[in-house]
Each structure stands twice: as C-alpha cells, then as structure tokens.
Amino acid sequence: MSLFDSKGRIFGIINVIDLLVILLIVAVAGRFALRAQQKPAGVQTKNIEVVLLVKDVREATSGVIKVGDIVRETKTNLVLGKITKVEVRPAETLVNTADGRVVNYPNPVLKDVYITLVGTGTAGENAIVVGNSEVRIGTQLSVKTNIYAVITTVMGIKVL
After folding, report:
1. Tens digits of per-residue pLDDT, 136-149?
2. Which residue, of 12, 26, 79, 87, is most buried by count of CB atoms within 10 Å of its CB?
3. Region for 115 from its dihedrals, namely left if φ exceeds 0, alpha if ψ lies in -120 to 50, beta otherwise
4. Distance between CA 64 and CA 51 in Å, rounded?
5. Tell me: the pLDDT tens digits for 29-65?
6. How far apart are the first and last CA of the chain?
7. Can you count the helices (H) and strands (E) in the chain?
C-alpha cells in the first residue's frame, strides 16, 4: 500500500490540502488557547491595599459606607475588594474672613470619607491593577455596592 492513492489522498482517506488546512486551524486555535492562559512576565497576583477619598458628600452617603462592604467598579461590575477601614471627617471649605484672609473651615454639612479597601490584583513594574482597573495615586475611580455609588480619588496604594 502506497502513501498516496491515484486521487492524491493520504492512505486513501484525506486529501493533502484538506489535511494542511485542518492542521493550520488546529495550530492557530492552540496558539490562542496557550496565550490566554499565560500571564505577562513580571506580574504577580497579590493583595493590594488602596485608600480612596470620597470628597464632599452628605451625611446620608457617609453613613452607609461600612467596613466589610464588597466594592465593585461601576462600569465593569468587577470586584475591587473589601472595605477594611472607614474614616469620616468634616469636609474643609475655604472661607473669606472679614479681614481679607482665606482660611480652611470645617463644613457643617459635607463630609470627606476615607475608604481603605483590600483587593486582589497584579503588581507589575509598569502598573498596578485591582479588579480590572489600573490604579494610580490621584486618579478617579467610580465605585459602587448594592446600596451606594460614589466617585473616589485614589490617595494611597500599598502592595501587601
């Protein structure tokens, strides 16, 4: 029995061109499957502590933010982490005095809320990603739970 028959099939079963097309499809699919499983070099999954500032909110909002809340990113709904510490302070307002000075004065209505959350993310040399959001000090991050949604500013990041 020869390798090719009179119609150009291998062992009389499959055409050579059909076999090459099938092998190409399997190779491409295998490459995408391996690439999806690989993590970029230098990136490790770690616990990351992020301090967020919610500026100038009313007491109704500051009163519902609690330790233990699971916080999600608003757009993607991915979990960022769990709140481990909440600190509420009076918001400071700039006020002009009678003698022409500008001073910081605690606002009697609005509050600043510092939220510390711990989440799982990746810390590489170029970026720190929590959930699916790249976090950097000074950037705004929109977060939510099932009760509230607020816009925060990243004030601190610590890789644990």
Report:
1. 999 999 999 999 99
2. 79
3. beta
4. 18
5. 999 888 776 655 556 688 999 999 999 999 999 999 9
6. 67
7. 2, 10
